[in-house]
Amino acid sequence: MDSSLIIELAINGALIGLMYALVALGIVLIYKTSGLANLAQGAIAMTGAYVTWAIAYGVGAPIWLAIPLALVLMFGVGMLIERLALRRMIGQPVIMAIMLTLGIEIMLRGLLPGMFGSAVKRLARYGVVMRAVSDDQTASWSVGIRGERAIAIAWGLAAVTAASAGILWGANQGVDWSLSLLLIKALAIAILGGLDSIVGVLIAGLIVGVVESVATGLIDPLVGGGTRDIAASVIILLTLLVKPHGLFGREHIERV
Question: Looking at the domain assignment, is residue 252 inside a domain?
């Protein structure tokens, strides 16, 4: 076994894993502020890539201008999703809100490729508030902190991080519906690192990227391919079985 090949695969995997972590970071931000697992994050990453392409090639703006404009627009998209859809779910069972985010994922995945064409190729204050809301929403509301605003900002930031990953990935792999599949990688990272740990996301991103890259390079030649597609699913399964709260997640104990 060539050690230089393994090192090369590990380095490439670490870089890819950090990009995956951008998508997972949005999942963690939303979970920390609202306790909600956002299953629309993959489609939001895809949306960011499509918006960037539309500004750069549809409007004709230079790419150095198209990217920041797209990120600003995606921040607004994230806040709009929270305001028009998720805020209406306040007081409803959490599973209903999660299913709503899944519905948004499916809608965007089906809608945008049809609009833009699936053949597109190449392409401090609120931090304290959000931490207070993530620790205890009820207590934060009681002292005058507007939890809705913090959650809306979290959705905006989540859209920005997802869009950043979508732009990076789309520039190399092309922009199409498959960008929404980044959700599986992001979920693996968020679950492994801990749904409420930003540090965990970064470390888990490196782990998932390296495992995926090394496994693909070493096992694919033996089994004929497909390892990359199942690595994230295996990580999710093993984490939930062995350490459900992830490597750095806090274990919540409820007294009844």
Answer: no
Does residue 77 register a pLDDT over 90? yes
- DSSP code of residue 86: G
Q: What is the mean pLDDT of residues 198-216?
A: 92
Domain count, the chain: 1
Query: What CA–CA distances, in Å, run from 70 to 29, 141, 169?
Result: 20, 33, 15
- What angle (nearest 5°) sits at the alpha carbon of residue 145, between those of residues 125 and 196? 70
Q: What is the pLDDT of residues 119-153, one digit of tens each?
A: 465 443 444 444 544 544 555 545 455 556 777 88
Closest by alpha carbon to 42, among 187, 231, 168? 187
Model-level pTM? 0.80
Q: For residue 34, how many other CB atoms are within 10 A of its CB?
A: 25
Tell me which residue has tokens 């732009």. Answer: 167
Residue type for position 100: L
Residue 187 CA to residue 167 CA, distance in Å, equals 19
- Boundaries of domain holding 15: 3-242
Are 51 and 193 in contact by the 8 Å Cβ rule? The answer is no
